[in-house]
Every structure is written in structure tokens, then in C-alpha cells.
Amino acid sequence: MDVFLQQLINGLTLGSIYGLIAIGYTMVFGIIGMVNFAHGDVFMVSSFIALIAFLILTAWLGISSVALALLIVLVLAMALTALWGWAIERVAYRPLRGSFRLAPLISAIGVSIFLSNFVQVTQGARNKSTPPMLEGGIALMQSEGYTVFLSYKQVLIMTVTAVLLTGFWYLVQRTPFGRAQRACEQDRKMAALLGIDVDRTISLTFVLGAALAAVAGVLYLLYYGVVSFSDGFVPGVKAFTAAVLGGIGSLPGAVLGGLIIGLIEVFWSAYFSIEYKDVAAFSILAIVLIFMPSGILGRAEVEKV
Amino acid sequence: MADARTSSLPDILRDAGLYALVAFGLCIPIVAYRTNAGPTGLELTPRWPLVAAFCAAIFVLRVVQRLILARRDARRALTPSPAQATEAVQGEPDAGQRVSTFGLYAFLGIALTLPVIASLASGGLGPARYWIDLGILILTYVMLGWGLNIVVGLAGLLDLGYVAFYAVGAYCYALLSTTFGLSFWVCLPLAGLFAAAWGMVLGFPVLRLRGDYLAIVTLAFGEIIRLVLINWTDLTGGAAGISSIPRASFFGIPFSADEDGFAARFGLEFDSMHRVVFLYYLILGLALLTNFATLRLRRMPIGRAWEALREDEIACRSLGIDTTTTKLTAFALGAAFAGFAGSFFSVRQGFISPESFTFLESAIILAIVVLGGMGSQVGVAIAAVAMVGGPELLRNLGFLSAVFGEGFDPNEYRLLLFGLAMVAMMVWRPRGLISVRVPSVSLGERRAISGAHVSEGHG
Amino acid sequence: MTVLTPANPKTAERIAVGRDAVLSVVHLTMRFGGLTAVNDLSFEARAGDITALIGPNGAGKTTVFNCITGFYKPTEGMLRLAHADGTVHLLERLPNFAVNRTARVARTFQNIRLFPGMTVLENLLVAQHKPLMRASGFTVLGLLGLAGYRSAETAAIDTAKGWLDRIGLMDRADDPAGALPYGAQRRLEIARAMCTDPVLLCLDEPAAGLNPRESAELNALLRYIRDAHHTSVLLIEHDMSVVMQISDHVVVLDYGCKIADGTPDQVRADPKVVAAYLGVEDEEVERVEAEVGISHGEAGA
């Protein structure tokens, strides 16, 4: 029971991070129907931005308040990663509208390879670890020598995720941008005829997706304290799995999928085998795509003849 | 960004300035500071001059681009347009066809005589080793590219897990030869069959998925196979891999210095290069077999069905073509060639580990197919030579080290360029270098079809 | 069924030959979620007839087609296809591709679906996949270059040439299908469907977008298919001049239900059809009536 509770906490933490990344996949898929393969690497780039920003703040500027440093890092990482998201869409995806259907996916694979190697070339291939940022936690339960521990990091990750998702939900449901975004999802041509700037809406979607990935990147760095240039791929695929599992195109689905994937990964590692945890994630991806491609909260697609 | 049509100088400068500003934003902090492991944790090294150079380069490039684009005809030729998928990419199809036939013969001629040319040029077989090894490397990718071309180029199925079948072939030879002592010539067809069987098993459930989902599932399968190879230590040796895999023999005659060896039997002086040259011709033969089979199949009903499938899957079904079986044959055949290439890889290296079969490898092979022009055999060969051989050749050019400083290794930038090239190709030439299609049958003279009409996969 | 007055003398001859149904649609219902696109539809297409399926937009005609040709699995109902030798196929139980391969039902599409990057000739050869595959020993023997395959391919090319000649595209055989003008693409799609040697040819709006001359050519082609190839034709059409001139039998759909069934003359005189088809706007009524060739005075007769 105690082990279970501990794993539940760990799983929800990890799931929050996956959920944040998954939103980027699901929104982009919803609006232009492409799998943004490079999204995982955007997440990795944001981790590096956060890492360097954190080092500058603590080592050079001597900011000792962790809370302040984290806030600045978060804002910086979101802004700069959003710029990456915008630039990628502008350069690699926008010219491909109207091209054949696999073109954006191939282009996205190109961007993914570019990003990870760009970071490798500029930052080196080694793992980068940060000094511990936020220590300590609350002991929730103690029995038979086992302590169920809720660290401050985990509290922070779950709180930040919850707050941001609420804000984001408001943005999509209640603002003109959100309306434009949902209109473009339904019918891009019609939306354009009604005076919606479709290009701008798509750009904003990428910017928002990248900003949420940046939050995930900062939290990931905070949680694990280490990052490398190749860290975008596996979390990226897992977050995509989450998006598909939740029903691609559905925002609550992405968060739900993220939590489920996080929980499965953690419980699988705890109770079965840690070596095969990624196999589990990839298998879920394959199984979901084959047997329930519309996911938990998605809509089924009817083939047009 | 400002519109390309207004082109007064201040306008251009302002626009280029904007580009430089964006580049600046992208450079901080990843380029501006490098993290290095120091005695007390990570240390930062500022590199602002590099950022400045980067932004200046972007600025100049944009100004040049705008000045070129200011000319109306150049703009029309260079501006990527959304309608490009339906526009003629290559004006004169017949010229493209001539390049195709000529290119194939030129490639064949050079490939057949490479060991001779290399040893004449560098004075002996020994010194030519570098060139022959490079040739083997390039030909391996040519073969993989041609194999994947069946799946992606002809049948229009995006397979991101192709390297898994390469791995199956490699491990098949490694395991069969080390545990049962089977010879390479027995294992080669077995590896192909085994990989094809895996192709069928993995392909069967996924081939009814839409294009991008299919791509992602094949990626997942590729990763699962790699992770199993890493973790199933009892069978595969885990991350350490399998070493001392038996070397290739000349159809049973070993390349050794003793009396039964190849050199002695054929009355030659022993030279360790004999084996390398043999391996070179082996992979050349395998690659040509792939090419021959593909060209032959294209003119058969199954090949036409693959291409029809790429053009319009629904129409195929209305004509009584079992699309699942048809896709499966393409998938399995592509896998079989990857299996052949894999067993060649392990006999050549003598050592294999899961390290060689990452997703990146799949992406590189895919990039070769995409850059070469999906469906074009010559294009794939050219792309493989350029993308695999190019960085190797650059490394030997002295002036690059002089410009970029000592220890500059173009290989480090190889993947960076791969990624950029894939994006650039999709934006400007989505049909690749050679974008014409030669009909499989004709009543009159065989004419090439401009890429404008050809589809790239139903997606 | 009432006794039919044939639309042309040829029909009378064939009526004597055989009156068997090639296709029987029995209680066909198709629902998409809450929407019932086709509701308890039953009709027959007789062997050797050109049967037209007409109805206003959204009446469910294309859905019926997609059910018959295996693209949709009907919610309820039976689709029975009989060959001349007496074998019977239940189309709703066949996988999509087998509707063409084993039951020999071919179709064309409303938005033309050729293989645009392949040549006209290749398009016609892809349609002969089944016999060619068999001749090539499922690729294995063909790879070895055996003579059996070569002669089969020559025969296939001859079949294709025959059709190219018929549709007037012989000189464009080596051009990509995507480069043909619209009308030629329509004809090529029909020829391609015919290359699968069907017993029933389903045409989804074959005259859409054709000019009057092309329309007349199409009529001739369809008559040729019916009379020379003994292939029954089922077509959806909006162009009343085509429907009234060439069809032997007309089925009218509205809101997924059959509202009339008979010869062209019977159907155009049916007040239900006039009401469903022409709605209430007088202008529209007059225009369509002029199209089908009846003056206002006879409309009620």
C-alpha cells in the first residue's frame, strides 16, 4: 500500500510533464493534421535553455532565492522556446501547406534531427547535471520502515501544471484566439472566409505548444537534474503516445493520456521490470494506434470515398 | 515578416534585420553560453562572437536572398508556393530521363572499377584501403536506400523502423554463425527470409493505418526491437553486443595466409586486402541485386499495384487489388533486402551491438530516399554518395581546418546537415533530386513523366 | 412489377433473352451515428439493363453505391449479386476488394480517381491485376522471365488497346493520366473499370462536368458496354438527358427511401417524383421539365 501510494505520487508527477508536452502534439494535430515529430526536441531545447539560464542566475548573478530564480527561468524558457516554436513553423512547416500529406512529417523528422544535433554541436554530447535546486519534502506516511515521501519538487510540478492547464483551458475556451483556433480545427477554409487569420492562428498554436513544452522542460530539469541532447526523443514519443491514447485533437484527452502514461511507466518499473519500461511505452503506442486510433476522448474518422 | 514584393533597400535591410533578430533570439542562450563540466559542477563559457557571426551570416544571407528574389523570374523559380505539389518541378522530363539512364551506367561503371582505380591512384591495394572501405560504407547505404525505396518510393508507405529489419538480419547471421557455426552463404538467405518474416508479422496489423500513423507505429516497432536487443542479454549479449563473428570466406575458402587460404589456392601472394576487396564486390553484388529486383518488379503486376497504391488506395480497392497483401509484399520485400544488408554488416564488422540500429539510422536511410527522389533508383544512389561520402571527403580537405580551426570534423555536422537538407528538400523539391518517373510499359517510345503528376504516397 | 414499355427497340429483344436480376438490393439500411442515410431500400437491377439511380442531392445515392461496392458495411440488409452461370455473391459479406475481384462489380467515382502519375496504358493494366498476377505465377515465375507471363502481358495490352481505341485515347496511351482533359479522364475511368471484366458496372455521375458532345459520346459508350459486353450498368446521374435517353429502368430515391421505380416514362410522370425532385419552386420545375422533354400540359398525365 505504501509503495503503491509512493508510486502513485511519482506517476502523477511524471504524467504531468508528459501531459504538458502532449498538449503541443494534440493542438498541432488538431489544427493542421500533422504529427509534429520535432516537438520532443523542442522540449529538450527548452531544458537546455532552462539549464543555462539557471546557471547564469545562480552562479553569476548570485540570486539565492530559489523561488525567484525558478520563476525567471520559467518565463525566460517559455519566451525563448516559443520563439523556437514560431520559427520552426515558419521555416519548416508553413511552406508545406498543400503539399502531399507525408511532407510535413518528413520535414518534422528533419527538424528533429537538426535540433538534437544543433544542441549536440553547440553544447557537447555529455549529460549535463545541475546542482540540486529544490530539496526536501513532506513525509506523508511512515510504516514498517517505509516512508511515503512527497517532495517539494513534486508539489511544485503538480501545482504548476494544474495552474497552467487551468489558464490554458480558459484561453482556448473563452478568448477570441481560442474561438479562432477551434474554428480552424473544424474547417480551415471556412474560417479564412470568415475573416480569421489562419496563418496567425496556426503560428500561435505552435507558440503556445512550445511554451507548454518549455514548462515541461523546466520541470523535467528540476525533477531529474540532468539533461542531454538526446533527451527529446523518448519523452517526445511518450507524450505523443499520451496524446493518441487520450484521443488526438482533444485537450483534456492529452492531459488524461499523459497521466495514464506516467502512471503506467512508474508502476511498470516498480512492479515488473525497469529495463522494459520504454518497451511498455512503445507497445502502448503501437497497440493504441492499431486498435483504438481515436483514443479515449477522440472522435472516430470515417473514410471519405 | 515583410512581403517579398516590396523591395526598396531600406525595406530589405529592415526585413533582414528582423531575421537577424530572430536568429539572435534563437541563439541565446544555447549558442551564447556553452556548458562545460568544471571542478565544482557546470561552468559557462560565453561565446558572444559566435552569436554575432551567426546573426551577421543570417543577415547577409537574407539580404542576398531578397536581392535575388527582387528579380521577377528568379522569384518565380525560387519561391516555394503552396501549389508546388501540383506544379511541374522539372521543365523537361526527357532530360531527366537521360540523366537517369546515363547516371545509372556511370554509377555502375565507377562502382565496378573502384578498387582498381583506387589502387592505381594510391599506389597499391594497401594504401587504397581507405577508399575501398568508404566504397563499402556508401554501397551499404545505397543498398539500404534501394531497399527502403521499394516501401517508401514505390508503395508510398512511410517506414520509420526500417533499421529494425537491418538489425534482424545482422543478429540473424551473428547468432547463427556463433552458435551453430553456419557459414555466411547459408545465413545470407536465412537472414533475408527471417527479416521478411518479421516484416510480415509487424506489417500485418499496421498496414491498414493511415500514412502518418503507420510511420509512427513502425517507429515504435523499430524501437521495441532495439530495446529488446539491449535487454535480452542471454540471447543478444545486451548492450555489449556480439563479437568475434566469423569472417566471410570466398565461397568456403577462407582469406588466410595458410595453404588452404584464398591466396594460396589461386596462386596469389597473401594480402589482407583480398578480403576487403571481396567484401566490396559482395556488397556491390547485393546492391545490384536489389536494384535489379526492383526494376524488374516495377514492370510486373505487383510493382504496378504498388505504384497504383501510392497514387490512390481507394481506386486500387475498387479494381479488386487486395491492398493489405500488396502492402505486405512491399513491406516484406523491403525488409528482406534490409536483412541481406544486415547480415553483410555483421560479417564485415565482426562485431555488432544495438548501438548501430538506432532510430537515427532509420532516419538517415529515409533521408537518402527522400533526397534522392522517392522512387528513383539513380537519385537514391546519388544521395547516398553525397550524404555518406560527402562528409568523409570534406574531412580530408585541409583548408576547412584552416578556416574553422584545428580539430574541425565535418562528420560532427553531418547529421545537422541531414536534418536541414530534409527540411529544405521538402520545402523546395518535395520530389527529390530526380523527380521524373519512367513508365513501366509503353506503346511508343518510353517517355518520362514529370514529377508534377506523380504522387508521393496517399498519407 | 408492371409491364414495361421499352425505351428503345433493342431493349425489347433483350427482354426476351433474360429477365433475371443481376443485383438485388433487399431492405438496405445504412446509418452513420444518428443519421439514417439509406432507409430500408429494396430494388433490383436486371441483367443487361442500364439501371439509373436518381434523386435530389443528399438522397443517399452515393451511400447506396458505397454499400454495393464494399466501401461501407451496411447496417442492415442484403446485397445479392448473381452471375450468368448462377453463382450468387452476397456483397455485404465480402471484403472491399473482393467485391470487384470475386463478385466482379466495378465502379467509378464521383470525383475521378485515376492514378494520375501513371500513364493511360498503365492505368488500364493495373485494372487487369488479377489475370496478370495469376499469369506471373504471383510474381515468382514472372521474375524469371518465363514466356507465359510475357504472352499474358501482351494480351492485357491488347485488351487495353481495344478500350483505348473505343474511348478515342489511343494516341495518348503513354501520357500520364493526370494530364488528360476532364472528359477524357471520365472515359478512361470507365474503360479502366471495364478492364476488370465486370458483370455489373457502377457509375457515379459519369456525365458530371461533360459538355453536350461528350455527354452524347458517353451515352454511346454506355450502350456499347451494355450491348457488346453484356455488362449491366447501374448509374447515379443528375443529367436527366442521359438518364432518360439511355436507361432501361429508373429507381428514384429521396431521403434514403425509394419513392418510385419503373421505366423512364413512368418515373417522369410520377407525381411523387415531380414533387420530390422539383420541390415547390416553379422556375426549377419548368427548367427540369424542359430538360426531360415534357411540355407543361402533359406533366400530370
Helix/strand order of chain C: HEEEHEEHEHHHHHEHEHEEHHH
The pair of chains with the biggest contact is: A-B, 68 and 68 residues
Oligomer: heterotrimer
Low-confidence stretches of chain C: 1-18, 296-301
CATH class of the largest domain in chain C: Alpha Beta
Strand composition percent of chain A: 5-15%
Specify the overall morphology of chain A. Answer: globular
Alpha-beta classification of chain C: alpha/beta
Corresponding CATH superfamily of the largest domain in chain C: P-loop containing nucleotide triphosphate hydrolases
What Rg of chain C, in angstroms, do the CA atoms define?
Answer: 20 Å
- Secondary-structure content class of chain A: mainly alpha
Under the CATH scheme, which architecture of the largest domain in chain C would be assigned?
A: 3-Layer(aba) Sandwich
Overall mean pLDDT of chain C stands at 81
Biggest sheet of chain C, in brief?
6 strands, mixed
Number of helices of chain C: 13
Rounded average pLDDT of chain A? 86
**What is the overall silhouette of chain C?**
globular
Helix content range of chain A: over 70%
Main location (chain B): membrane
GO cellular component, one term (chain B): plasma membrane
Membrane topology (chain B): Multi-pass membrane protein
Pfam families (chain B): BPD_transp_2 (PF02653), DUF3382 (PF11862)
Question: What does this entry look like structurally?
Answer:
Chain B: The chain crosses the membrane at residues 12-33, 48-69, 102-122, 128-148, 155-176, 182-201, 213-232, 278-297, 328-347, 359-391. Chain B: Pfam families: BPD_transp_2, DUF3382. Chain B: Its main location: membrane. Chain B: GO terms for molecular function: branched-chain amino acid transmembrane transporter activity. Chain B: Residues 12-96 form the High-affinity branched-chain amino acid transport system permease LivHM N-terminal domain. Chain C: Keywords: Amino-acid transport, ATP-binding, Hydrolase, Nucleotide-binding, Transport. The complex is a heterotrimer of chains A (305), B (459) and C (301). Chain A is mainly α and 305 residues long. Chain A has one domain. Chain A contains eleven helices and four strands; from the N terminus they run ααααβββααααβααα. Chain A has helices at 2-32, 39-60, 66-93, 103-123, 152-174, 176-186, 188-193, 198-224, 233-246, 251-271, 277-291; strands spanning 128-129, 137-143, 146-151, 226-227. In chain A, helix 2 packs parallel to helix 4 (103-123) and helix 5 (152-174) packs across helix 6. With 459 residues, chain B is mainly alpha-helical. Chain B is built from 18 helices and two strands. Chain B has a two-stranded antiparallel ribbon. Chain C is α/β, with parallel strands linked by helices and 301 residues long. Chain C folds into two domains: 1-104 and 199-301, P-loop containing nucleotide triphosphate hydrolases (Rossmann fold); 110-197, 3-Layer(aba) Sandwich (Rossmann fold). In chain C, strands 6-7-8-3-9-10 form a six-stranded mixed beta sheet, sandwiched between helices. The two termini of chain C are 20 Å apart. Residues 1-18 and 296-301 of chain C have low confidence and may be disordered. Chains A and B meet through helix 2, helix 3, helix 4, strand 1 and helix 9 of A and helix 1, strand 1, strand 2, helix 8 and helix 15 of B.
